[in-house]
Batch of 3 targets.
Target 1
Amino acid sequence: MKKVICLFICLLCLCHAQQPAAQKPEPKKFPEEVLQTPPVVFAIGHDYQIMVPVVTETLLSCEINGKTYYDANNGVICTATPVRRITVPQAELDAAKEYTLCCRVVTKRGEYYTKTEPLQKKTYKFRPLEKTDNIKIFMLADTHNRVKAPTDAVKYYDKELDLLILNGDISEGLSNYNNILTNYKIAGGITNGEIPVVYSRGNHELRGAMAEQLPLYAPNRDGNLYYTFRVGPIWGIVLDCGEDKDDDHAEYGHTVDCHSFRLKETEYLKNVIANAANEYNTADVKYRLIVSHTPFMHINEKPFDIELDIYREWCKLLRENVKPHLMLCGHFHTIRVVRPGHAWDHLGQPCTVVVGSRPGKTMDEYTGTAIELTEKNATIRFVHNTHKIEGEDVIEFK
């Protein structure tokens, strides 16, 4: 009996020895299997926020000139949210002209002994805006979940593009995460993380169950979606008008408080003006832009008649203090250059306003705005996704 038992044990050991060893899964290839899109470098104040959506829990950091910057919250490196954000000083990245994303995919996040895949890196070239003349900007607004047509329109500039502006209603609404990804599919696909991008929220991005979470997924300053930015010789302010109807409109179902939001934004604008010497009145600022999804002006078939006292004050503050060169807008689904004193100007607009987005009747059509800045003027071209020029104007600077 003992011999039989020993023989049985030997057979078990032999079978076990012949079994192939369990193989560890191959690490995910970075960036292809980790990042959903290429990174996007958003300009916020005097910083950049390098942001990118990920498909798995990932510890992501950024190296610039040997210094490491983390996506961290009070000392804890973030892995929970599906969009990573790494804030870096603008001057550092502008000087280095490249950055390296460093990735550790998390296989187990525990209270003790978190486990990760091996460290992987990818270096991205970066082209800061250093020239002061012949600056090429493309503005997209009201893409409403379109990706290909707006992207094709921007290809009008090919590799000469210096700055991309996403000016609101890029998504149809924020009912789901895929709509948020539209920002990254467009901006990441166009720029590949190699040039700066400016982002402004539109009124449709106040709608849907995820609207309140947008600051987790979009560039912002201390949670606010209005802020100033610098890109080379350009100083700009992103203004957020919120919704385009009164807060008690039945469409919103008691989900918005834009009145209080606008009052807070008015105080912010006054603080920017009080700090003009460090904002738009520095010696190296040659162009002053306003980026606002909503133009807060009348248009023939769409009267703008909410919060008129607030918007009239904004116009006065900007006109008398900031003295901007251009105001870039969307919202009205039309293409038009509107100079002060025009019939649509019912609040005393602070400068010439470019309303420049026209989504077509199908998802395959879109017209956006190409802007070329020189020290004397701005050339505006409304560009269809086929690169047909649908309108052109030259705005002389005083």
Target 2
Amino acid sequence: MLVDFNTLPNESRVWIFQANRTFTDSELDEIKLKLNTFVENWTAHGSDLQAGYTIEYKRFIVLALNQDVNKATGCSIDASVHFIQDLEKQYDVDLMDKMNVSYKQGNFVAYKTLTDFRQMAKDRAVSKNTIVFNNLVNNIAEFKEYWEVPASESWHSRFVK
């Protein structure tokens, strides 16, 4: 059951899929339609899941699930992964690789491999104050508070001085 992302409780589980590029406006329109259909029909053992999504910076798909209504199961999580993998194929984009880093350069969102980000930290091209996207947050409350943070306040801190 599709609900507005902003109406989901703070404890709702989130999954963040970062794209290796910005989506075009027409791609976003298509992806939103596909997300609406997927989330509206997303179930766990035949029971509807109360879920929503948001797309941030034209590059992050954030899927959220109210687990107080029904919890995600292995099959429902697999279904979401297959859906995201289908988007990857349809739009020739990488959404599943967790070994990449997105961070802000002014108003621009940059995307680098973890190796490149580590080298940039060594070269002081990024610092502890660089705003990074912590895609490891677990729920909406953490998403609101800890998703977009200085590198010093994230798992990225191990790379910056």
Target 3
Amino acid sequence: MPEKQLEEGKKRLAKDAFARLLGIELTEIRPGYASATMKVTPDLLNGEGLTHGGAIFGLADLVFAAASNSHGNLALALNVNISFLKATRGGTVLTAVAREESLTRKTGLYRLEVRDENGELVALAEGLAYRRS
């Protein structure tokens, strides 16, 4: 089943123009969980030469969407808050993971972590999704 979910997730990702623009690759998806990677290219840097917060948020949001939709119901974000903990630069490969913390009939709560290639925490976020019946 996880292979089927990964293929379905990759099909949805292929339709996501913003994720394509960021160069995000979905690496794993299973019920309540997703992971993805993104290499920081020069186009993803801010004016200080650091990874743009919007790019980091985009990566976190993608795994949030994948994990919250992994149960088959359409899930849409109600709220996401993020804390940026470490700056990164071009060439860094970021990995994001979303883990389900709570699931009800109508909502899902997810912990989102973005780490660099050394495993250091770059950003920590929490996402709340509304689940359609």
